[in-house]
Request: fold
Amino acid sequence: MLPELNRQALLQACSREDLIRKTAAQIIKDFAEFGLEVTFSGSVENFYDELFGQMKTHINAILGEHYTRFLSFLYRIDVTENQVAQYQQEMIDASYEDALTELIIHRELKKVMIREYFKAQNSSTESDSNLLDI
Reply:
């Protein structure tokens, strides 16, 4: 069974330094594919604020460009416009850019968590098959 990926699970995952670092690396990688530089100091305590500000600046720039590039960016991150609209409804006082930025952070964290889950499942299966070889 896949790990829980609701808002509470994401908040709990944010307390794990390894997941924070991997999420930062994923964000940096995905933004770099569009020529957008995001840096991370490595300070897990400031992870959210540090990346949020940089990401929001880039999102504002992409929104001001061609809509096609913006849609390609959302596709790369694996975010739909419907998801953004849903986040906006949940974050009543947030701007579109703030809701989108938070959604991207959560989506990138989910990618990392799913990858970790399947990695653990794979190593568990390998351990079980090694026991059979004995």
Q: What stands out?
A: The radius of gyration is 17 Å.
